[in-house]
Amino acid sequence: MAPSGMITVYNYKLLPALASLLETQSVTESADNLNVTQSAMSKTLKHIRDTFHDPILVREGNTYILTRRGIQLKQQLPDLLQQLDALYLPQAFVLAHSQRQFSLSYSAFVSPTMIPQLCKKIATLAPQASINCTLWQNQSLDNLAKQPFDLVATTALSVPDNLHGKKIIDDNYVVVCCHTQSITQQTMTIEHYTSAKHILVNGIVDPRREVDSALSQQDKTRDVFAIVPDFEMAFATLQHTPAIATVPLNIAAQYAEQYQLNLFLLPFHLPPHSYYLLWHSKHVHDPEHQWFRKLCFDYLKEDLVHRQIQGEELLTH
């Protein structure tokens, strides 16, 4: 017995040999079954006896019989070995029986119409499952392992090494204003852009930096009139003010008809930005997660490509 305070480490590799010895009650037959020598099986039996502090098999004439402990082990061991073998089987996944609560966190570029369609699909294919959708508020992707999200759909300049993901699509920024404004020319010039009042969306940090950096290279700045919580409020504000906003093309296309927006190309260069679907490496081999991320990716891809085509058709050249 191990001294007090020490952890006993058992040799589970002995169990298959023990199971054969209990079944055959013969060292010779067990050696044949396991394709080892009789000498090796005899040594294994000695290790088993030492481990269980019991002879397990005792000789009776030309045969062996089981001790009381051996009889108990013969009853217990088959189920135990079956459970151990089951640990190595691929994880079973029956979609219709899944009771998982999936979680998706997404930034403002995801269309409000996509989430209901995603929920409808889950309700049809996995009726016992559920989904929790939350807005991604520019949290750090480095800490995704500690956050309760299966997937994050967001823009990213770089992806941390511990994350996996797929790029959904690249998008560009455009300028938008309301039809009722006096901007009627076909081209947005840098003079028009810098002389106008601007509406920004709170929390959309990276494009703000990129725009200001591009303007500063031309020794120019912009006049920020209002900062609002989300894109939809920005477009509603455009209807009531002589202002413009710089937004992703797919977002502009999504709300163009509702808020009567004019779309213009930027009068300076900004690099495209990329939308990603990301997940932590701990989810890579999870069958339920594999199904969920494919479902989300397909819906996001279809929705974004459709709106990007719409936006390009709406652009005023």
Overview of the molecule:
The chain is an alpha/beta fold. The protein folds into three domains: about 15-85, Winged helix-like DNA-binding domain superfamily/Winged helix DNA-binding domain (Arc Repressor Mutant, subunit A, Orthogonal Bundle), CATH 1.10.10.10; about 100-170 and about 275-315, D-Maltodextrin-Binding Protein, domain 2; about 175-265, D-Maltodextrin-Binding Protein, domain 2, CATH 3.40.190.10. Helix content is about 40%, strand content about 25%. It contains ten helices and 13 strands. It has helices at about 15-25, 25-35, 40-50, 70-85, 115-125, 190-195, 205-215, 230-240, 250-260, 285-315, and strands spanning about 55-60, 65, 100-105, 130-135, 150-155, 165-170, 175-180, 195-200, 225-230, 245-250, 260-265, 275-280, 315. The strands form three sheets. Strands 9-8-10-7-11-13 form a six-stranded mixed beta sheet. β8 (about 195-200), α7 (about 205-215) and β9 form a beta-alpha-beta unit. α1 (about 15-25) crosses α2 (about 25-35) and α2 (about 25-35) packs across α3 (about 40-50). The longest helix has 28 residues, at about 285-315. The chain is rod-shaped. The relative contact order is 0.13. The mean pLDDT is about 90. Belongs to the LysR transcriptional regulatory family. One of its GO terms (molecular function) is DNA binding. This is Probable transcription regulator protein. Keywords: DNA-binding, Transcription, Transcription regulation.
Name a few traits of the molecule:
13 strands; 3 domains; 6-stranded mixed β-sheet; 41% helix; 5-stranded mixed β-sheet; D-Maltodextrin-Binding Protein, domain 2; Arc Repressor Mutant, subunit A; alpha/beta; 317 residues; single chain
